[in-house]
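Q: What would this complex look like in 3D?
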Amino acid sequence: MRLLCLFAGFLIATYYSNAQNHVLSGNVRDSLSGEVLIGASIFPADNPSKGTLTDESGNYSLSLPAGQYRIRVTYVGYADKEQELILDKNTRMDFLLSSTVITTGEAVVSGKAGDEAVKKVEMSRVQISGKKLKSLPVLFGETDVLKSITLMPGIKSGGEGNTGIYVRGGGPDQNLVLIDDGVVYNPSHLLGFFSVFNGDVIDDVEVIKGGMPAQYGGRLSSIVSVTTRQGDMKKWKSSGGIGLISSRVLVEGPIKKEKMSLLISGRRTYIDQVARPFLPDSLKGNRLYFYDLNARYTWRIDEKSTLFFSGYFGRDAFNYLPPRREDLQFGVKWGNSVFSARYLRQIDSNWSMDASLSYNDFNLSSEVTFNNLVIRVSSGLRDWSTKTNFLYRSGKHGSIRFGTFYTFHTFRPGILNAEVSGENDVNSRINNQFAHEGALYVSTEQEWRTRWLVQAGLRYTFFNQVGPYERVLYESNGVKTDNIVRYGIGESIAFWDGWEPRLALRYLLDSRQSVKASYTRTNQYVHLATSSAATLPSDLWVPSSALVKPQRADQAAIGYFHNFLDNQYEASVEAYYKRMRNQIEFKPGAQLFFNQNLEAEMVFGQGTSYGVEFFIRKNEGRWNGWIGYTWSKSLRQFDAINNGEPYYYRYDRRHDISVVLTYGISDKWEANFVFVYGTGNVITLPVGRYVFNIGVNPDDLDPSFSVLDLYDKANTYRMPAYHRADISFTYNPDPEGLKRFHSTWNFSIYNLYNRKNPYFIYLDPDVKTGKITAKMVYLFPILPSVTWNFNF
Amino acid sequence: MIKRIPYLLVAILLITACEKEIKIDLPPAPQEIVVEAYINDWSPLMNYVILTHTVDYFNPDLSLPAVSGAQVEISEGTVNGSDTSWAFPVVLPELAADTLPGVYFNPLLNGEAGKVYRLEAWVDGKYLHSITTIPEPVSIDSVEVDVHLEQDSFGYLTVFFYDPPARGNNYRMIFRYQPDSVIALWGSINESDALRDDEFINGETWDFRYTRRFDYGDTLQYFLNSIDRNTYLFWDSYFDLRGNSGNPFATPVKLQSNIQGGIGCFTGYGVSYRQIIIR
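A: Here is my prediction, written as structure tokens for the whole assembly.
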């Protein structure tokens, strides 16, 4: 309660401080396309420390004492702009910036220049722009957001064939992946080899891995927010690309000039067609591909309000036709559909708000045909969500934010249907589950004596599993009882809630150095059920219920931030400690598919992770890029696993290095280089063998038995380290953009020195000699690729 | 098939994968005693205890690592409410330490349905013990054989029985096809060996059908063995472990052993048995 009082006092203080200030607000846009510019710096030319940055809708708001100012606006890749004004009342001023034509051979990096890293209260955040993403060398030349963000410290990749990301020792389901505010539950294509985001439509990606402000929540470890581009507001344009395994096309333009724009983009892979000549005959009947579509419609209703509609639809399809078996067919399809509508409004110079409504659906369906028998199985989940946020800016760098969040979840664990020659024979389903999830938050940011900046927030979250539902009761030893508890529509089955305090502090040592600290508590009410080491589309999301408690994490972080050489370099060191409770694992050998009693297969425990992250980035110049290094440890403790003793998390990684360098060779050529190193994953290998089920073979009277593996401690074997270097060259024959039809080439080499990185290890016993050999499977050798991109 | 979808998908993607042999140094594991013991109400010849020990993982020698020279006893208990009264233990001597080491057997040991049994073993200063039950057997209602020897020599064996109305019945169903019928150890090669509990078909008629090539004069054997829950959980984990071996994506399975001081299972069978000769 004392905390609440303090909090309320803090809010009031924010309202009434420095009433003699006036607010300068407006937005910043590209002069040609009319697209908003996110993260542009706006500041009085003679006092840059009083500046601010545009938010995700391109809006800014500055509170300054009355007086005469020269306001400067800067944004990387754009010419600076200055404007004189006399501030004697709250004033609105919009800026249009022109993109610079690069003729000096200086490569453009769209990152954040300026002193934001030092001045802002936020820590543990990373951001990569769509432009930067597209220049990085990647597998098969396919731009991949989720792979690229793992080049940042504290964010780890699970390795090849795994788009799961592991943020500060957390699991892959502990990241809230958003595309324009819509949730993506399964962000991978082709079983984790590619992520669902098409590089062409991405404007910006932001990852919050700690020090989460109160407007974010729902997952323990991070928020990965992907913002798509707005369509061009001035003229119709097309662009696209042809790559080794996929092609893309994008069309954008104004529906009504300066008012409404539309952007539509599609991507389709043909990896199965490309690979076909190299496959053995027995596999030629297979098809494996994915496609996705993105669309965004922007309507700038007036100067102060904007409406967006955004949609994503993607499907993976796999068909298996066994050779010489015309009677047997097998097919599986899965994918996400995400739609969102978002409304942004600058109410007056102090108030702004945004509201959104989103829908997402993940569906996996498979069909097996055997003669005249057809078996269909499907599973998935669906959410309807709404969000509202209000922001009040007042006083000297003071602001209050508050808002609400609500989701209705429908979980569909499984429906099975079997048909013989058109007649429905068997229909079986695991009962759907329904739940309400909601949150309310309030947060405030307040500057004190210039050096201190405090952001304090409180978020209340709840989760309510509701009927209709039939819960079958089981005894503790797994025997089903005849007792079934039936819940009516809307009847509460389980209710969980929690308070999540958030606090972030910044102390400026001088104009170039700061120290920051943060504390975050998060609750997570939905969980990913997976028993295998790879993330697969068959993994199920399950709700918190009477037996499954919500996951909870507390994280504290402290960091030192230093920019030097006129903000050309930004450097930081952050240390974090995270404790995660009610972590879920499945019992070894658990049957997840079509299991009505899935909860009985779960075991609960806790996790701890801590580490130090070093980061240095050069934002501009002929040479630019970054180097990150993380030292970390991640442990789990489950009473039912490893005799209750703590053990290393599978993705525990002692050392993690990433180097990303860009060099502008000439005005036509640019080179990008990536190097990554990560300590190997830990796995459990058997420590011995024994024989069981001993008998006699009736044919020859020899002994018969099964040979079984003996396991001891969990996750004690460390796989070989993962490391790899990639390089790419971008060739732009027309750097000045004089021609109407413009094209660029991207040549890249993945795994430059042909490192054999472990995908998994298996033990292969020879039946005859009994000798066992260990084999390591690796996926991608040195792989060159070329992509041709065009726009007109 | 459906259960294997994810693995099948991965398998397809692995066409592009390559592999290389690596050397793995596993720390030597402490040796543990493995117990495979049976007590049943049908034939005293099939009550026995086999003791073996675990071996290092990369040890290529797969000959039975028998444990000889143990003192093995089984005692019968009668349950009266919460009390169990134990009879004098029966000692199981080692059958033939030089030719068939590690097998402990006493033809005088009889099992009875509804009783509990305690196994105790002393070996190299270690003490192992376990308790199991012989549940009341569930009788086989009928067995049908349908043979089309003239057409394709395929045949069906269908077994019918009624699951008792109370919940909690667990079964191990063993079907053997042995032209030269030798009733040997329980683990002898079985045509079909499956575990069921009555979760989905409690109190109903069950019919299980087995298909294979039959010939006139063939002998078929069918065991419907009732087991207690702990025994069921052990064998369930055994089948998981056996099925998972070699699958790099599966998580390691730990056996739900019912032996204190060692690993393995003391299995009590309440047996219903049919033998069919194809005519």
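A: To summarize the key features: Chain B touches chain A through 83 residues (CB under 8 Å). Helices of chain B lie at 5-13, 229-244.
Q: Very helpful, thank you.
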